[in-house]
Records
---
Amino acid sequence: MAQEESDSGGAREYWRANVRLLLRLLCVWFLVSYGFGILLVDVLNRVRIPGTGFPLGFWFAQQGSIYVFVVLIFVYVWRMNRLDAEFGVAED
Amino acid sequence: MNVQAWTFVIVGLSFALYIGVAIWSRASSTKDFYVAGVGVSPVANGLATAADWMSAASFISMAGLISFLGYDGSVYLMGWTGGYVLLALLLAPYLRKFGKYTVPDFVGDRYYSQVARIVAVVCAIFVSFTYVAGQMRGVGIVFSRFLEVDIAYGVLIGMGLVFFYAVLGGMKGITYTQVAQYCVLIFAYLVPAIFISLLVSGSALPQLGFGAAELGSGEYLLDRLDGLHAELGFAPYTDGSKGTFDLIAITAALMVGTAGLPHVIIRFFTVPRVRDARTSVGWALLFIAILYTTAPAVAVFARTNLLATVSGQPRADVPAWFETWEETGLISYEDRNGDGLIQYVGADSPLENELTIDRDIMVLANPEIAGLPAWVIGLVAAGGLAAALSTAAGLLLVVSSAVSHDLLKRAFRPDITERGELVAARLSAAVAVIVAGYLGIDPPGFVAEVVAFAFGLAASSFFPVLILGIFWKRMNREGAIAGMVTGIVFTAAYIVYFKFVDPAANVPDRWLFGVSPEGIGTVGMALNFAVGGLVSLLTPPPPEAIQRLVDDIRVPKGAGPAHEIRA
């Protein structure tokens, strides 16, 4: 009984940690695409990336957001693997 | 050798490669057929997903679309890549842990309802068929332009090939041919892009090249392009003209639609473990990003080249590619003022525009416009075919498993044997190939239109019930069915109204909240969430066993080497 309770308590904690991580990563996801790429594009376009012809907002919309997306997923993989090990819920 | 000979050789070699791979990886069980025996490595699955996902639209049309839309084209770049973040974080690991074969499987089991399962099957088949018809059409166009065979024969050859490896090999055959197809298509995309980038900017990386200064003039390429646009009366390239809310809605519809497309989701059922599902989404997006970050560069090079080569030039001096494409009807020029010059100008110009160009030809014509060697042009044809065929095969598998597994095995004939189910799966794949081929040869006029809307439909039907099914235990059967039906009916009705019933009304002033039909999936999705949540709260909670199922899919441990079908 005690075992079961601590298990479900652990599972609940694990799930909370997971959801917290998701929300943080999704904030970044929102910021670089909808934020920098669309909502703030006119403001950012006043700045140029030094040494290139890219207006910053345009660059985020057509390049930067995509690079950040790739990095986000690998950060998620790395953090989740650590979380799985911490809570003893990893496979194998 | 000339272009046509090179094309024959390169396309022939690539087809021989796919057939070889297909023979090597035949399916021998339903598990092989539906999920490739759950033994695909994360990197291989990432490659296969990238090919599965990047269709004729990504390869052939996207750069052209961006080339004509400028900044507004960003919605496709962000929308079609950002969806993978949602897929990785919100869906793939949990659905992999669930461990069944199809999306309707999850919907049917999680919502303990045959009605929900059948609604999901109908949505999956509808989304997949609209999408696949466009692929077959793409195959036909490449064949007819580069090999000068009739579009119908082109589609038949494509059908034969897909038939061979999808029907024989199922998911296993498709997976490994898709890996080969990714290699062909990315090589075919990058070679001309790098060539042109070197010619124009001196940079070997197109991603940097389109932000660099032009060789010769020393002016930044983007400034040059904005200057040309201003001079010719087009809207500026690096600024948008769509409304902000519409941009957001379209981006969101494409992102969420990507995450809800059944043929993409099932790819993550094929890896051995939950952690592999997470990693493999990362690989998939990395491989996709290689093409997606190159596309906007190709768009800028193509646009600049096009304006510099044809605009204001005498018709008699324009290179031969112009005439070849004129013959296919994809470029048309009418000398309205009779001066023998090509006036290619935008809406803000005092002159009258005399040239119309189908934006789909930009990627295919680009190597010719830039004067690249003949073998590069043949390579581009092979790449376009690889993109179209790999996507078609993945979609056909969804249709086939929806029929043999979801309808037959799980709904109507649960006592069917493993052998019987495998035969049924092959037969339905065969029928699906034939239907898809028919739609490709003789498309009902609206197919091309509808393809883009497959995303809106996927966004408004599947995404909310999958997310709520994982993240909200209280979500129940009644909510899921009400949500899916509301979402897809609303979205389909909006699209059908503006595209087919009353196309004249398809202007921003008449749109709901200023959202175009391309972006309406976002509103449909929001409705699905709202209706689904509300109906759930007003009806009894799901049974205890379902709540335990949700607890179980939330932790990776215990996924095991995936489930066998037990009769």
---
Amino acid sequence: MKETRYVKAIAEALSEEMARDENVFVIGEDVGGPGGAFGATKGLLEKFGERRVKDTPISESAIVGLAIGAAAQGLRPVAEIMFMDFLTVCMDQIVNQMAKMRYMFGGIYKLPLVLRTPCGGGLNAGPQHSQCLESWFAHVPGLKVVMPATPYDVKGLLKTSIRDDNPILFIENKTLYALKGEIPEEEYLIPIGKADVKRAGKDVTVVATSRMVHQALEAAKTLSNEGIDVEVIDLRTINPLDKETIFKSVEKTSKLVIVHEAVKTFGIGAEIAAMVCEEMIDCLDAPILRVGAPFVPVPFNLEKFYLPNSEDVAKAVKKVMEY
Amino acid sequence: MTNKEKLLEMLYLMVKIRRVEERLLDIFAQGKIPGFIHVSIGQEAVAVGVCSCLEPTDFILTTHRGHGQAIAKGIDLKRFMAEIYGRIDGYCKGKSGSMHIACKEMGILGSNGIVGGGIPISLGTSFASMFKGEDKVTVCFFGDGAVNEGTFHESLNLASLWNLPVVFCCENNGWAQFTPQKVYMKLENISTRAESYGMAGVTVDGDDVLKVYEEAEKAIMRARKGQGPTLLECKTHRWFGHFAGDAQKYRSPKEIQEARGFDPIGKFQKFLMESKYINTEYVNTLEAKIKSEIEEAVAFAENSPIGEMEELFNDVYV
């Protein structure tokens, strides 16, 4: 094992997959010379050259469209959209083109395409550079949505995503880029659609995503001192959702809290809660609670009141315990 | 100038497109085709003039008004018809219908229901050709309405910057759905925009198949030789409404009549007759051949089943 940062793990995954498969190329704004706005593509230009590391104009629709056409012709593009918020300027290409092409054309084309983008607040970047919009895309058939929380997961999942023959929205997190963690020296892959039990526990199930996995783990640690044993499930993939892991845990604990940084209203927490209610309501001993951001734009100056944190998670867990 | 065989092939394709679309209007009116159809009657010279310069291995991206472009690229009429009927033997198992028809074998990346939606995708097919070192060219068709979409601007800039082997073919019929060109843009010739992207631009009489062919051939050759993209504007006329069944109340009967005065097939036939390449008998035989092809395709489509329930869930993911 070695210690590496989340952002370095991404660069390693890209580099390894580019070395492994000549058809993989990287495209986006500032991905070449500058190595990406957050450094995730650093070193690739030097290693693989301009043919496979493509700096583009600020033209998100062109970036995604190019990736779609190239993927349909057998290449494996990894496109970077600098901030998740900017997906809004290329929504047609993502939702009407990328997600529909295979189905609409009766399966004649494969689209092995990864769209990498960072979400999340925490950098005081304001309402147009901090959103978590994963539920929008998880709502669109034809897309897979991956959202890793650790250096280990981000590397293994990115490598698998690049090898997958479907279009994948790969959501990173800006505040996690500097996070350090252990990863194996040797090659490894992590399957898409498989959640990970980050902490086993018997009292309450907490399902979390991305940055909130760490908040949930922190809360679990605090609560363990109070005798509450929390199981923390890191979803890792939003769509396809790993129902099995969630259900198995809820069967054990009978209590469920869902945690995400996106606004609580209409978020993936609602989907998971509905799913559990539809299929296993008899198992529940308490109402399902959700922890998410309030239904306001991400504020530039008031982030500390906005972002859900470990205390919010702990409060929700205690509430279901006291029910 | 092209040889006689090529000219006769072009005539065949133009007449075929028109007769297919006339038949489609008829079938649509009978309620046999679900959804919408958009016909390109009056615009046949653009599809045929351009696609006649392409190899089967080249790519095209087409529009909602794309029957002609697909036929000119060489799509099989039976499977084409089955697709429009929404039947399982169609190129896309009936899932695309008229508006999204695609055919991998003939390099047709699909017609797009989103105005301007295909333009960025043409960057990808042309990039893939360049990346692989292949000399395949992409032609991206779009209407005049699409040139005010942001995708047009983003794509032409990038294609020019990277010298991509693509030809942007604007089939300018003067109408963005129900709105005439003078209402939505100040420029008369859309090709003048090419200069601002640093690429070649040309406007051609889109009702003259030979002129279209001549300019398309140059543009496609430039792309194939790695000399960069071209914005090729073909000015043509839309005889019918935006969609089948459109009463065209936004157009004066006089204007419609005038549009129909520009008949690319009549013009080309006249030229071929005067050049003694064809005579009336030839035309009659050609019409009969096309009619039987169409009827065969219609019968094929009508006998093809609609997909089973499980087909609903196929092809969402690999």
---
Amino acid sequence: MDNTALELIELGAVFFSLGLLGRLAGRIGLSPIPLYLLGGLFFGTGGVVPLHGIEGFTAIAGEVGVILLLLLLGLEYSATELIDGMRRSWTAGVLDVVLNAAPGVAVALVLGWGAVGALVMGGVTYISSSGIVAKVLGDLGRLGNRETPVVLSILVFEDLVMALYLPILTAVLIGVTLVGALSAVGISVAVLAVVLVVALRYGRFVSAVVDSPDREVFLLKVLGLALLVAGFASAMQVSAAVGAFLLGIAISGSTAENAAKLLEPLRDLFAAVFFVVFGLHTDPASIPPVLGWAVVLAVATTATKLATGWWAAGRVGIGPLGRARAGAALIARGEFSIVIAGLAVTYAAVDSGVTALATTYVLLMAVIGPVAARLVEPVARWVRTRRPSAAPAPSAGN
Amino acid sequence: MNVEVTPLPGIGVRKDFALRNGRRIGVVTHRDGKIDLIVSKSDDPDACLAELPLTADEAGALANLLGAPQLVAQLREEHRDLPGIHTRQLPVGPPFDGRTLGDTALRTRTGVSVVAVMRAGQVHPSPTPDFILTAGDLMVTVGTAEGLDNAVKILKRG
């Protein structure tokens, strides 16, 4: 059998098993992300069936997956929504950063992974999975709930934080000096500001550049522009993913909607590859040593997200049940935690335990999140009937 | 009525208002145009009892059901002093789907006047004979009791 044939068979086997895993996830009402990661562990180094020869393709496909994840995230939001969201929720957003990055930072420092490891783990535990959260809110019929705008604006804030955090992380991982890191931050703040202004005032011109009535032309133009922007951003050391995110924000209106529809299947494909590639890099044997810490992080950051949502929803006058729901909705971590940990892997600047811990953590949180969102209401009601006088404490199944 | 408009970043817009009994009712309009009807729970006003996805046709039909009686009641009030004149809403049946109001020949056959056609919650007042009907439209009609009964049969059977 020649090489191409072998590679095709391997790729086919990977995609087909991911399809089966995705179907299984749908059956049991879970996000497919943890199963994709497990798939990666299965096929990767030290896994049950190690695959060789497709690394070239999967590496670049994984990169494209990250770019598409962030591009579609940018397409989801208009510049007005981002600015509104930031204005309305910045206090909750800051609390969110402090409470949820702290456990990751603390554990990384305790494990002796240094400042860079702490920066990575802080990001991993901070960022909620907007994909999982939005899906869970839709599935549970909570889009019309009064606490839902609170949850969504916290997600918006988190995504803006990502636009600043990723360039900083990239700069630090490359190992530039403090001045270099600061200039990366300066560049990304300036670019973010310019993009928001351009998107607000001249969004229709950016949209006009990529728009086309022909689906094929449109797809090629959007994808091409996204990769170009990501590539140039990467060359300027501002993180490819952030470039794509900003492009997504700049494209607006019906163009953004059509682009999102066209790119969605591509994103699902390439993002799946990205999760598998990340799993491939993790040696299953390295998981048991960090399992304890992952559980500690899972418990701590479940509590901190609950507290964030509880407080943020309380500020706008939502009742106890709604506050508990808002907190539980935010618990899920997923794609962006992996994007952050994936960056660390790319530059190999951190302890290899970081990937193992991040994988295990996301495996736990991507499952706990949706389950907690479902269980929070019955649990909160039960707590309330048990203690009718006292304020019900937020607690969810974990 | 104070309709509250709340943006839902990445999803769409929620428009709702409080009923007299304190419950909220409204819609979530998704960015791709899909509409969910929402009704809040009685014991937890923050949460939704139901979130029903409606197609454009279904939303239109519901809007007709809610809107037409108001119009009929209003007209009835205006005609109260004229004995023998009745105002009713009549559904347009499948036989006239895609055909004109003139094709029904209601005026000639029953003496009934069509004051307005309700479609998707919109009032189309004083429709002309070349107005094209769709199944599911509601006609707001004025006539004698007998004439209206006949009109119902015509609209149903053709």
